[in-house]
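Section 5.1 Outputs to date
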Amino acid sequence: MIAIVCPGQGAQTPGFLLPWLADNWFQQSLESMQVASGLDLVGYGTTADADAIRDTAVAQPLIVAAGVSALTSILQSRTAAQSGIAGIAGHSVGEITAAVGSGVFTAGQGISFVAKRGQAMATAAALEPTSMAAILGGEIELIEATLKALDLEPANYNGAGQIVAAGSVSAIQELQANPPAGSRVIPLQVAGAFHTRFMKPAVSVMQDFSSSFTVADPAIRLWSNAGGVEVKSGQEFLKMLVSQVASPVRWDLCMASMLAAGITAVIEVAPAGTLVGLAKRAMPGIETLAVKTPDNLEAARTLISNHVNLG
């Protein structure tokens, strides 16, 4: 049984779309979503510099468009269910890619939702100086106590010994200067404290924006960052997407749920690499594949075929 995983913000690098534009399925999907997004996604993904694509309002639609287009290239004219894929999950903004891949959103709804989400989160991040940092190693209880003392929040539980902290810039600097015992702290190049109380203004915006959305129930297993639970209602998943903007990402529990469901392999769609790296450490025994360029597409199709009847 195989699952698709969809990366979140921070996975993209300048020019990462260049090799993909030679793939017709990818290009057609990307150009369609570019029109719906109102952004020059091709330009941002090919010629823009790191600062330009770090902008939350750009980065989020770009990541979702890349992920959806890569999945389109893998499946071509089929749906995930038709291909034999057993489940899908996304990390942070990657949950919108997963919503499209599972059939909850159309591609147009997905890019519309993420474009608004990116704008709303960028606006919320601009209200006061905040940031994030990855904490590698250490005991979870000690880390959580340290964060509470600094008025920081655990924004991502990524598994494999990694937690991402978020909050004021000064508190992040203090965390970096005095990391919890047995850990090291790496500041992240992000625009704000995502998945924390600082994003509550964005939640309100997204509640209003999504109130008129008509969505479908997922056609394949769909796991949520909210506790790693499987969600069977499209409307419920939409509500979770909205609230998740200001709530911690439990990717550790998503991986645990995949293992419990009998998943035997994981494919990460573009811009790939981060989630496969976590899976290799937290999901021992499963096969993994990062679809970084079109050169990986045939390997992805073969892996899906090999695992369709397992489990």
